[in-house]
Specification:
It contains two helices and six strands. By secondary structure, it is of the alpha+beta class.
């Protein structure tokens, strides 16, 4: 019976300590030291679904907005510098 009370006391002490640290915000500061910051190079800004096979994505790639069109024959990328990339055919044009 004494072992049960000892285990309950330890668990209660851990719970109270965690509650107190979370309330003071100490856990977020400690956790931020151990969590690796994930830097996203590509972010989806917007998406328009035209048909089940056709959709348009507006992406931000390293600070530059890029329009990507998905269609049944492949992917077409329209860059911010007005270059036209047709990935399905591998052709590049202006």
């Amino acid at each position: 019976m004494e072992q049960l009370f000892a285990v309950m006391f330890v668990l209660l002490t851990l719970w109270v300590t965690a509650w107190y640290l979370r309330r003071k915000g100490a856990t977020s500061r400690v956790a931020s030291r151990f969590v690796r910051r994930h830097v996203r190079l590509i972010d989806q800004v917007d998406k328009v679904r035209l048909t089940p096979q056709h959709s348009i994505y507006l992406l931000q790639v390293e600070g530059q907005k890029v329009l990507v069109v998905l269609h049944p024959t492949g992917v077409t990328v329209l860059g911010g510098d007005a270059k036209y990339y047709d990935l399905a055919k591998g052709a590049v044009g202006s």
